[in-house]
C-alpha cells in the first residue's frame, strides 16, 4: 500500500513499460514509498487498471498512453507527467523488447524493433526528462534526482543467439556511464540495472522456435520475479543524497550465464 510517509514522499516518478512485468512492479514499489507515479506504455487499459489500483491504495498515479519509439510521443509523455504531477524526480527507462535468434537470415524487422525501443526509445525519454531531473536535483524534497536505465545481463556478456539484443543492451550501458559522468556532480544519479532471467512477458514476443529453445534453457531454473527487480530499483532511488548505485547485476542464483 502507498504510504505518504515513505522515503519518496513529495517526489514524482515516471516508469516506461509500466503495463506489465518489471515496469508494473516498479511503479507499485515506488508508489509504496510515497512517490506519485506516471505510468507510460502503449496498453492504455492495463495502465488505467494499475493507476486505479495505486489510487485505491492511497497513492497517486497518472496513466499516459505513449509509444516512446516516437520522439514526439516520448516528449509529450514527459511533458504531461511534469505538468500534471508538478515535477519529475525519478525516471525508470524500462520499456524494452528481446527478440533472440541467429544473426544469419534473421528478420530485419526484429532488429529494427529492438533498436527502436531498446535504444532510440530510451534515448528519447532520457533526453526529454533530463532538464526536469536537473531542476529537481536543485531543491526539495530530496536534493537529488534519479535516472534508472534497465539493461540486461546481455549488456555485459555476448551470447550465441542474442547478437543484436546484446548490441542494444551494451549500448544502454555505454550511454548510461557517459551520462553519469556528465551530470553526477549536479546530483542527478544515473543507474544501470542488469537483470538476468525474470518471469515476465518478455519471452512471449519470440518466434515460436526461439521461444521453445528459451523455455528449455530456463526450464529447471528458479527465475527471478518482477518484484525482485522492482525492489532493487526502489533501493537505488531511496539511497541518501551522497550515495549513488551506479550499476547492479541481478541474476537468479542458479543462472550461470
Can you characterise this structure?
This protein has helices at residues 21-32, 44-56, 71-85, 108-136, 163-183, 208-217, 226-237; strands spanning 12-16, 36-41, 61-65, 90-93, 145-150, 188-195, 247-250. The protein is of the alpha/beta class. Strand 1 (12-16), helix 1 (21-32) and strand 2 (36-41) form a beta-alpha-beta unit. The radius of gyration is 17 Å and the shape is globular.
Question: What is the secondary structure topology, with strand pairs?
Answer:
Blueprint: E1 12-16, H1 21-32, E2 36-41, H2 44-56, E3 61-65, H3 71-85, E4 90-93, H4 108-136, E5 145-150, H5 163-183, E6 188-195, H6 208-217, H7 226-237, E7 247-250
Parallel strand pairs: 1-2, 1-4, 2-3, 4-5, 5-6, 6-7
CATH superfamily: NAD(P)-binding Rossmann-like Domain
Order of neighbouring strands in the sheet with most strands? 3-2-1-4-5-6-7
Apparent shape:
globular
Q: What's the total number of strands?
A: 7
**Main pleated-sheet profile:** 7 strands, parallel
Computed CA radius of gyration, to the nearest angstrom: 17 Å
Reading the helices and strands in chain order gives EHEHEHEHEHEHHE
As residue ranges, the low-confidence spans are none
Number of spatially distinct domains: 1
Features:
alpha/beta; 7 helices; 257 residues; 15% strand; 7 strands; Rossmann fold
Quick overview:
The protein is of the alpha/beta class. 44% of the residues lie in helices and 15% in strands.
Amino acid at each position: 500500500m502507498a504510504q505518504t510517509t515513505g522515503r519518496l514522499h513529495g517526489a514524482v516518478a515516471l516508469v516506461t513499460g509500466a503495463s506489465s512485468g518489471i515496469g508494473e512492479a516498479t511503479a507499485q514499489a515506488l508508489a509504496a514509498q510515497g512517490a506519485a507515479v506516471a505510468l507510460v506504455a502503449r496498453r492504455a487499459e492495463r495502465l488505467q487498471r494499475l493507476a486505479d489500483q495505486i489510487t485505491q491504495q492511497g497513492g497517486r498515479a497518472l496513466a499516459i498512453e505513449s509509444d516512446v519509439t516516437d520522439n514526439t510521443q516520448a516528449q509529450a509523455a514527459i511533458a504531461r507527467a511534469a505538468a500534471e504531477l508538478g515535477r519529475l524526480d525519478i525516471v525508470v527507462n524500462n520499456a524494452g523488447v528481446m527478440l533472440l535468434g541467429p544473426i544469419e537470415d534473421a528478420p530485419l524487422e526484429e532488429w529494427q524493433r529492438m533498436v527502436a525501443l531498446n535504444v532510440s526509445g530510451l534515448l528519447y525519454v532520457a533526453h526529454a526528462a533530463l532538464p526536469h531531473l536537473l531542476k529537481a536535483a536543485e531543491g526539495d524534497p530530496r536534493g537529488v534526482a534519479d535516472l534508472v536505465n534497465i539493461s540486461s545481463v546481455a549488456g555485459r556478456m555476448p551470447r550465441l543467439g542474442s547478437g543484436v539484443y546484446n548490441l542494444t543492451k551494451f549500448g544502454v550501458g555505454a550511454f548510461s556511464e557517459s551520462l553519469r559522468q556528465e551530470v553526477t556532480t549536479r546530483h542527478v544519479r544515473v543507474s544501470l540495472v542488469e537483470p538476468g532471467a525474470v518471469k515476465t512477458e518478455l519471452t512471449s514476443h519470440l518466434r515460436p522456435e526461439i521461444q521453445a529453445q528459451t523455455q528449455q534453457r530456463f526450464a529447471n531454473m528458479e527465475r527471478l520475479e518482477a518484484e525482485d527487480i522492482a525492489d532493487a530499483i526502489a533501493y537505488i532511488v531511496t539511497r541518501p543524497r551522497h550515495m549513488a548505485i551506479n550499476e547492479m547485476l541481478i541474476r537468479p542464483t542458479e543462472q550461470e550465464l
